[in-house]
Amino acid sequence: MTKEELKESLLRVYPEMVFEETGEWLNVSVEPSAFLSVAKDLRSRDEWEFDYLFCLTCVDWKTHLSMVYFLRSFKHRHMLTVKVKLDRNNPEIESVNQIWRTAELNEREVYDLFGVKFLHHPDLRRILLTDDWEGWPLRKDYEDPVNIIKL
């Protein structure tokens, strides 16, 4: 399926979807309240069948955080990037570990470094830093007076 065919297929089911026309893959923005439902459809619908979440990450835009999910369908050989804008002061989103098992450790990493709370995650705790670490070191407002290098 080409990017245009995938976009048309997604718009038939989700006419409110917003697409970005940049980059190699099709990019779509989804509201946090709709994300879990959309994620389940992306995984289970025959015409999409995104069976592999090969990466998820977070971006700090200073005004908000964005969750970014990179999906692949081995059957249809198409890729999709899903972006979800989160409130910086209360970054919460449903966990997708029950849809894609690869999400479990990746969500813990994002929690550890950005402080995003993944609702209904089975084991949401720090994975890289110690349990007593304070703050979220990949946020742009994080201050570390000991290790910071100012340019």
Q: What does this 3D model show about the protein?
A:
- By secondary structure, this protein is an alpha/beta fold.
- The chain is built from three helices and seven strands.
- Strands 1-2-5-4-3 form a five-stranded mixed sheet. The chain has a two-stranded parallel sheet with strand order 6-7.
- It is elongated and about 50 Å long.
Portion of residues in beta strands equals 25-35%
As residue ranges, the low-confidence spans are none
Structural class: alpha/beta
Distinct helical segment count: 3
Write a compact overview of the structure shown.
By secondary structure, the chain is an alpha/beta fold. Helices cover 24% and strands 28% of the residues. The protein is elongated.
Can you tag this structure with a few keywords?
151 residues; alpha/beta; five-stranded mixed β-sheet; 3 helices; 7 strands; 24% helix; 28% strand; elongated
Topology:
Elements: H1 3-13, E1 18-20, E2 26-30, H2 32-44, E3 52-60, E4 64-73, E5 78-87, E6 92-94, H3 103-114, E7 117-119
Parallel strand pairs: 2-5, 6-7
Antiparallel strand pairs: 1-2, 3-4, 4-5
